[in-house]
Amino acid sequence: MPNPPDAPPDELSIGYLMHWGARLLRRLADRRLKPFGMSWSHLPVINALAANEALSQKALAEIVAVEQPTMVATLARMERDGLIGRRPDPKDGRSVLFFLTPATRKKLPAIRRAVIEVNEDALDGLAVGERARFRAQLEAMIRAMDDKTRA
Q: CATH number of the domain that 103 lies in?
């Protein structure tokens, strides 16, 4: 495998490889999602709102696991682009709830197909029989790192 352009020669740690792979996956996803007026960074919010009628900014930040300033910027871009809307929270007049616009809800099946295609592109380098094992190993690594960061 050729070294990524900014990699230290012959010193590719697992962290660096995961980071490089994530960057490439994001590029693939951004290309597939661009026709829907969205990017990879919007996908966790889209998924959270697709599973819920509406959520607060705080709830979205917790679900997506990002800091509030990041969520504020993401929601502002998504609202500007017509992907989401906001309305007052009927239970708390000081708060607002975010929801998917009807146009975005209509696009959900196509967005999901695009994500499946991105996953297939990413797995092209693995034999069909290796894919499930790779996913299981990746999930095990993530669980182990998550446990260590919470300790």
A: 1.10.10.10
With cut-offs at 50, 70 and 90, classify the pLDDT of residue 11.
low
In a domain, 135, yes or no: no
Residue 66, in any domain of the structure: yes
Residue 20's domain spans which residues?
16-122
Secondary structure in 3-state letters for the chain: CCCCCCCCCCCCCHHHHHHHHHHHHHHHHHHHHHHHCCCHHHHHHHHHHHCCCCEEHHHHHHHHCCCHHHHHHHHHHHHHCCCEEEEEECCEEEEEEEEECHHHHHHHHHHHHHHHHHHHHHHCCCCHHHHHHHHHHHHHHHHHHHHHHHC
Q: What is the total count of domains within the chain?
A: 1
Could you read off the pLDDT of 55-110 as tens digits, one per residue?
999 999 999 999 999 999 999 999 999 999 999 999 888 899 999 999 999 999 99
